[in-house]
Amino acid sequence: MNLTSVDPPEVIRFVKKNYPDVELIKPRMSIYEMAKKKGCLPTRLVRWCCEEFKEMSGAGKVTLIGIRKSESTNRKKRNEIETGDRKFSGTFDQWSEHQEKMVTCVGGKDKILVSPILYWTEKDVWDYLKRMHIPYCELYDKGYNRIGCILCPMSSQKQKAKEIINYPHVKNNWIKVIEWLIKNKTYMSLSKNPEMAFKCWISKKPFDKFYADEVMQQKLEFKD
Ligand code: SF4
Q: What DSSP designation does 83 have?
């Protein structure tokens, strides 16, 4: 399990308790330091965090992943067997010798991704966990339906609002990074206000749209 330094502690505790064999791999650099190096925070469109922290390992190995087609439009296009670079993408027919060779003969350095529950629905997952009495992370009982990093750019606004309250240190660390970026790089140079820049990052809006909405909001509050 590749850690990013913004992993929910509940997930780490769950893995340590239930899957003690899992190797927890610490990042060579924290996500905050990486953001300084990149000159920006990760966003939905520029998601450098996955590439740097999650996708870089697994070369020469087979990795089983839990993605499902029903999760998103992009995941709908995925296949049961793929190489990390998607040069091979297909369905694994265990009776077809030809396909078996195609899977086993990819270059030794390839990362082979196998998605055994690709066609499952969310209900299938929960039915299976309950029927087999498989433990799951407590965050699912606290309203989460997807667990990623704390304040992940892919999370919903509702989830992020909750995380700002539950993990205030993560917000504070990102504010410190933003302060550093405003001082040392050109990041959000229009703002000069780290709190405002943080709110903008969380909102997923482009800075000019976010700023215009904020000004409008302040005018409305002033009128009231
Ligand atoms: S879970 Fe979210 S924040 Fe974490 S690496 Fe993936 S995209 Fe980035």
A: E
Atom of ligand 1 nearest to the CA of 54: 5
Please choose from 41, 54, 201 the residue to mutate so as to test ligand 1's pocket, defined by most ligand atoms within 8 A of CB.
54
Res. 122: pLDDT tops 90: yes
Residue among 67, 65, 112, 48 nearest 85 (CA): 112
Q: Which amino acid is at 198?
A: F
Which residues on neighbouring strands pair with residue 83, listed in sequence order?
Answer: 112
Looking from the CA of 72 toward its CB, the CA atoms found within 13 Å total 6
Greatest pairwise CA separation for the chain in angstroms: 73
Domain residue ranges in the chain: 9-78+115-223
Mean pLDDT across the chain: 85
How far apart are the CA of 148 and the centre of ligand 1, in A? 6
* Protein residue whose Cα sits closest to atom 5 of ligand 1: 50
Q: 95, exposed or middle or buried, with CB in 10 Å at 0-12, 13-18, 19+?
A: exposed
